[in-house]
Design goal:
237 residues, alpha/beta, Carbamate kinase, seven-stranded mixed β-sheet, 7 strands, 14% strand, binds uridine 5'-triphosphate
C-alpha cells in the first residue's frame, strides 16, 4: 500500500528526546520492511512556535514567520531522516516531484513545509494526491476530528467516521473562530475532498498505534472517507 504519514511536530518533537524520534523511525521502518511505499511529512511543533513568537515580536511579517516555520519543519524532518538512516532520502525534498522520485527509488522522502500561507497538513495532502496514495494518515496531538473544539465546548463529540465534504464544512466553521484548533487545515481538507483520499486522523503519541492503523485500519481516531468509500484491500473490512 502507498501511504503518506504526516507527523505533527508536537508529536515527534514536543521536546528534544531522541528516543521518541527513534521509536517513530522504528514504526516507519517496520512498515517499509512490510512492503509499504511510504512518504513522511513532519511539522514544526513547539520549536516553530517559539521561533515564530520571537520573530513576531522582532517585527517579522507573516510571510517571514511562515518561512521561519518552514525551516523548523525541515529541521525536524532531518531528525527523522537521521533516525531512518539509509532508508530515507538524505535531505527533505524541496518539491513534490523530488519526493515522488525518492518513493519510486524505494527511499522514504521526509518532507517539511513548502510554501508560506499553509501548514504541513496541506503538504501531506498534496503529496498524497501527487503520488496517488492509498492512505493519508495524520498523527496529531488531538485524538481525532470533533464536532467542535473540545477545548472550548464540553459537548464536542469525536467522529469515528466523517465524509471529506463534511470535514471541509466543519473546518471552514472552526477556522473562522479566532484561536481555535482545527484538526487539519482547510486547504488540506479541500485537497482530501477533491482527491478522494482515504484519510485517518488520530492521536500520534504512540507510533505503534499509527503503525497498527496503517496495517489493519484499526484505530481510535477518525476515518475521513471519500464519497466513493473503499477501504484499502489490505484491510479486512
Ligand atoms: P506546522 O505544519 O507544524 O504548523 O508548520 P501548525 O499546524 O501550526 O503546527 P502544529 O501541527 O500545531 O505543531 C509550522 C509553521 O510553519 C509554517 C506555518 O507558519 C506553520 O504554522 N509553514 C509550514 C508554512 O508556511 N508552509 C508550509 O508548507 C508548512
Amino acid at each position: 500500500m502507498k501511504v503518506v504519514v504526516s507527523v505533527g511536530g508536537s508529536v515527534l518533537v514536543p521536546d528534544m528526546e531522541p528516543d521518541r524520534v527513534d521509536a517513530y523511525a522504528d514504526a516507519v521502518e517496520a512498515l517499509d520492511e512490510a512492503g509499504h511505499a511510504l512518504g513522511a511529512v513532519v511539522g514544526g511543533g513547539p520549536t516553530a512556535r517559539e521561533y515564530i513568537t520571537a520573530a513576531r515580536e522582532l517585527g517579522a511579517n507573516e510571510i517571514e514567520l511562515d518561512q521561519l516555520g518552514i525551516e523548523v519543519t525541515r529541521l525536524n524532518g532531518r531528525l527523522l531522516i537521521a533516525a531512518l538512516d539509509d532508508r530515507a532520502a538524505p535531505t527533505p525534498p524541496e518539491s513534490y516531484e523530488e519526493a515522488r522520485e525518492a518513493m519510486r527509488r524505494g527511499d522514504i522522502p521526509v518532507m517539511g513545509g513548502m510554501v508560506a500561507g499553509q501548514t504541513t497538513d496541506a503538504v501531506s495532502a498534496a503529496l498524497a494526491e501527487y503520488v496517488s496514495a492509498d492512505l493519508l494518515i495524520y498523527a496529531t496531538s488531538v485524538p481525532g476530528v470533533y464536532s467542535a473544539d473540545p477545548d472550548e465546548d464540553d459537548d464536542a463529540e469525536k467522529y469515528d467516521r466523517i465524509t471529506a465534504g463534511d470535514l471541509v464544512d466543519l473546518i471552514g466553521g472552526i477556522e473562522m473562530t479566532a484561536g481555535s484548533n482545527a484538526p487539519v487545515d482547510l486547504l488540506a481538507a479541500k485537497i482530501i475532498e477533491r482527491a478522494g483520499l482515504r484519510t485517518i486522523v488520530l492521536d500520534g503519541t504512540d507510533p505503534e498505534a499509527v503503525q497498527r492503523a496503517i496495517e489493519t485500519g484499526e484505530h481510535d481516531g477518525t476515518d475521513v472517507v471519500p464519497a466513493e468509500a473503499a477501504a484499502p484491500d489490505e484491510w479486512e473490512r
